[in-house]
Amino acid sequence: MGAQLRVYTQRIKSAQTTKKITRAMELISASRIQKAQARVAASGPYSRAITRAVSAVATYSNVDHVLTTEPEKIERAAVVIFASDRGLAGAFSSQVLRQANELTELLQSQGKEVTYFLVGRKSVAYFAFRKRASEGQWTGGTDSPSFETAQEIGQALLKSFLTDASEGGVDEIHVVYNRFVSMVTQTPEVVRLLPLEVVEGVEEPDSKTVLPLYEFEPDAANVLDALLPVYIESRLFNAMLQSAASEHAARQKAMKSASDNADKLITDYTRLRNNARQAEITQQIAEIVGGADALSGAK
Amino acid sequence: MASSKLQVSVVAADHEVWSGQASMVVAKTVEGEIGILPGHEPMLAVLAEGQVRVTTDNGQKITADASDGFLSVENNTVTVVAGNASLVK
User: Fold this and answer.
1) Per the CB < 8 Å rule, is B16 touching A42?
2) The whole model's pTM is what?
3) What pLDDT digit, counting tens, does each position of A192-245 carry?
4) What NCBIfam families does the entry give (chain A) (predicted)?
5) Taking burial as the number of CB atoms within 10 A of a residue's CB, which of A35, A65, B68, B71 is the most buried?
């Protein structure tokens, strides 16, 4: 077998192996999207109930809460980035990181210092490579997030928020994540988490129904104290679920186009290989004919 | 006038634990146990760690564990919201 022929055969083999992997990943992601979407839907009643309750308290009481009051001067802002644990998901992680960088520039132009909280191995690696500092990191489980992780993140954020800026706390918290729009579109989104802007970005309770006058137990301030951290956890959890669904959708899309590309490569190389084989045969015939001519001429 | 049924749903962070009609809900708030019958005034209460007991309209009793959550009552709709909630078998 000629050298050229061997090279083509190798290329075809390698494309075939790659295709096997990408095809498998595509199928796995496709089956997990359904599950991830179901989880987003299942967390709906919880976040709706909480949003409704929070807006009820906020509307019907004049309690000034530290989580809802805008600080006079914002010195430091925190950015929470939800990326993925694993790659091979197209622009999934990079578009979130790009959005986060834009946000950082914006915040810095307003004279704010920026600190980071990272979720997902990809964002951690991105920061480690550029030797940028971060305050908190959570890795593992971005493809099926647990509520415990959301609670952990929420507590860390609250702790930082309630610390004074002079002692290293933050005055503002932003969240950057991929929102699941459809199977083909996932858009990176920035949401300001704290100070709270109640009922923003989530499904609002129907504005026509008037909220009833509530009785609070023990009292409005205490209820708000208990509700707001829960509300934040629920928002974070929702962001994580959306991000997980987006991750699977992005991976499925990326792997599908990778498989298609592998298919195309295989076809192209097979043609080239056939060409090379034919050329080799033609050359061999020419050599035999030439040889026979030379022999018959010598007689 | 208040109708004679409560519409109850118990939801946890990642799923709905139970929902249906009930005649009475007993829950433990930070101030003590509270029983809710149809026609109760709108209320928001912080739950203490403990059990929520629901008596369904056919007399069946359902118990759920609920922690770090709250309870809201309005228009005969009772929502028990808890980060972690599960039915007790």
Assistant:
1) yes
2) 0.84
3) 888 876 554 444 445 555 566 778 877 878 888 888 888 888 889 999 999 999
4) ATPsyn_F1gamma, PRK05621.1-2
5) B71
Which residues on adjacent β-strands are paired with residue B25? B36, B54
CA–centroid distance for A65 within its chain: 32
- Residues of chain B numbered 25-84 and touching chain A (CB < 8 Å): 29-31, 34, 41-46, 68-70, 72, 74-75, 79, 81, 83-84
Task: Please list, residue by residue across A120-151, b when 16 or more beta carbons sit within 10 angstroms of its beta carbon and e when fewer do.
Answer: bbbbbebbeeeeeebebebeeebbebebebbb
| N-to-C CA span, chain A | 33
Residue A33 pLDDT > 50:
yes
CATH of the domain at B29: 2.60.15.10
| Residue numbers of the domain that contains B25 | 6-88
What is the fold, at CATH topology level, of the domain defined by A26-254?
Pyruvate Kinase; Chain: A, domain 1 (3.40.1380)
Q: What is the DSSP letter of B48?
A: P
Residue to mutate among B71, B76, B81, B86, with most A CBs inside 10 A, is: B81
Class of domain A3-23+258-292: mainly alpha
Q: Could you report the per-residue pLDDT of B26-80, keeping only the tens digit for each?
A: 988 888 888 999 988 888 888 888 888 898 888 888 888 887 788 888 888 898 8
Q: What average pLDDT score do residues A149-165 get?
A: 89
User: What's the number of domains chain B is made of?
Assistant: 1
Residue A39 forms contact with B (CB below 8 Å): yes
